[in-house]
Design goal:
With 213 residues, the protein is an alpha+beta fold. The protein has 2 domains: 4-89, Arc Repressor Mutant, subunit A (Orthogonal Bundle), CATH 1.10.10; 93-211, Gyrase A, domain 2 (2-Layer Sandwich). The protein has 8 helices and 8 strands. The termini are close together.
Length: 213
Amino acid sequence: MHNVVKLLGKVAQRYYPSRMLSFEPAHIFKVLQVIHDNVKASRSLLIEEIGLGEGSVKTLVKHLKMNELIITSKAGMTLTNKGKTLFSKLGEVISAETNIHECSITVGKFNHAILVKGLAKDVGSGIEQRDAAVRIGALGATTLVFRDDKLFTSDKSHDIPIKDRKLTSIIIEKLGPENGDVVIIASAENKKIADLAAKRAALETISNHEKHS
């Protein structure tokens, strides 16, 4: 997976003697996504989509430019070839996302599901993913694995099949999981936090895999 989390972490690294940063790799991931999906993305769009203040977004953009991931102009921002490559590598392992309804296995009104390819074996009880989501402001996260063409809660000692047919149908339709994939659903009090929390939990899963591979 080419150490994608380390590359994002490098962008989110504090440069002495600058102040403590209010963004982290999940924010970098989201910014790359927004710029990729919007021709000539503006700074105001990033503020709206990410939920950070103007000063934080200005610093974040500066870090992206320092790492040669974006080009800025009066018309807006675009990804460089290096930025496109990094975003493409992220897409190889985090290949789909969707908002889902509140249900029996979620813990908040707003829920964002994200698919992590092929890392079911790297997931235990889902506590690491939950903690990663909570640290960015989520209420919690539910981690599922796709095995034998079915969704299970992620506990290697005792797999519990998901009985919510509507949820299962939405996940299969929107995310298209294959056997061995992981689905993380982050729950929060607003959509932006749920989105960022799902990304953070996904990056935590990838990071754990990279450390042990």
